[in-house]
Amino acid sequence: MMHLINKRVLLGVTGGIAAYKSAEIVRRLQDAGADVRVVMTKGAQEFITALTMQALSGNPVHTDLLDPQAEAAMGHIELSRWADVVLVAPASANFMSKLATGDGSDLLSTVCLATQSKIVLAPAMNQGMWRNASTQENLKTLLERDIKILGPASGGQACGDVGPGRMLEPDDIATQVASLFEQDAFAGLKVVITAGPTREAIDPVRYISNHSSGKMGYAIAEAAAEAGAKTVLVSGPVQLSCPARVDRQDVVSALQMYEAVSKEISDADIFIGAAAVADFRPVEEASEKIKKGASDTMTLNMTKNPDIIAMVAQREDKPFTVGFAAETQNVLEYGRKKLEAKKLDMVIANDVSDQSIGFNSDDNAVTLIDKEANENLSVRSKSQLARDIIQVIAKKYKSKYHA
Ligand code: PMT
After folding, report:
1. Quick check: do 8-179 and 190-283+297-401 share a fold?
2. What global pTM score does this model have?
3. C-beta 360 within 6 A of ligand 1
């Protein structure tokens, strides 16, 4: 069964008679669990109204690049980051040409230029236009750029012609979009991931913690499961639901996280430490609520928590071990130091001084650091970033163990 649970699909609709079918595409994507937003070109609005698409998608429809109000709410850059996939259906010959030449003269083409997510086109046009040398040249360019093309189908056309150029049926399009999220890069592997903060108790009502929301680690767990891994997610206290096909084990403190990871790690192939584990905990947890007392100050004695990822990396049968480095300065330098000090295979360094990425945001930007090089993954949604990270880890894992 296809599923797009938690997936954000930006549906671009361009001008063509097949635009009436895009209403049905919204339905099919939603049936599979996707959150759908719609961008319509001027031409598309001649065939189907924005109101119809708004009523079906349950979200405002985006039509203008230069509308200050729309840009203030969710502009082209936000839309391009929001999307896990940009699906243009129907994609006209004109739109394919714009995309191939890097034209950014309207909202949909700018979103496509800006996005780091996968772009999928379902072309629909007259058979002569499809066969035309310019369209075929554009098609070749788009395929070379890793843009996915669905169809077109062949058959009778609205204009009376018969031949290739019909848009695929909505069911088929939704199924093929869902299949994009299913890969086998981690098939047969067990991946253990930590996520979220830990809480270190001071007394029965107080604790020390941090701002981690768990979003990054959960996105990685979801991407690992989609890539076919048996996925164990050891999670600190967060407000997120467990991704499909993931075995979540809830913990509160760093010591509990250490215990849970220790139990799961012996047969793991890959470990990814995305949790923001407290480095210290109070030496003692008071059994009763600590009273304010007369003093203006309070001293808390802290002791170091065990380093979970260092424990994993020190094992003789160590899995491929990936740590995060949350830094506020000298991000790359400190990240590389962590790689060496903790004997990791890879460090994913993020700058947590930037409020728009890192802790508790929907987006992140990271640098992947390993023995050989640094690789920048610029700002994108945490779910897209997680999928990109999983692909890089899969490649590195294979070259380490199957070289
Ligand atoms: O959860 P979000 O709101 O989505 O935010 C994501 C994030 C910023 C928390 C995430 O991207 C991130 O950077 N996680 C690691 C945070 C961190 O604690 O980094 P660190 O540099 O202090 O630790 C380095 C590595 O050692 C991390 O992999 C950490 O999980 C691990 N560690 C640290 C201490 C400890 N006692 N045990 C550990 O395993």
Report:
1. yes
2. 0.85
3. yes
